[in-house]
């Protein structure tokens, strides 16, 4: 099972569209968004994915009711805890809002820092795909996680 991972889109529509095309081309089974969509019109681009998607709110998501409506309820208050392919996954915007060592998860997906990170520690995988928007780092990235092999690949878009 392949999971597309995206965060910090910050209304950069061309980059969101590029991410959607990449995820569709790579035939991911699900996309997880770690927050900071910003405006509901950004979510309309995510709805063009060929697969389902879920996400959490970020600190810059002020128009929450509009985001909820545009997403069809796919965006939740974090942390969002799900199980896929016998792997426990926690999705959160700011990893500092949870206690990772105490989190009962095999995989923690987060954003907020705009910094691409893949960390393996204490039998866990922590993934920050970096920022999709590219506004702060001038590097727009997303990631794809293979749940069968636990391999992660980042893509510049």
What strand line-up does the widest sheet have? 4-3-2-1-10-11
The number of domains is 1
**Gap between N and C termini:** 22 Å
Output the CATH topology. Purple Acid Phosphatase, chain A, domain 2
Helix percentage range: 10-25%
Helix-strand category: alpha/beta
Alpha plus pi helix count: 3
Largest sheet data:
6 strands, mixed
Order of helices and strands: EHEHEHEEEEEEEE
As a percent range, the share of strand residues is: 25-35%
What global shape is seen?
Answer: globular
Number of strands: 11
Low-confidence stretches: none
Q: Can you say what the CATH homologous superfamily is? A: Metallo-dependent phosphatases
- The CATH C-level name is Alpha Beta
> What is the averaged pLDDT score?
97
Second-tier CATH architecture: 4-Layer Sandwich
Radius of gyration: 14 Å
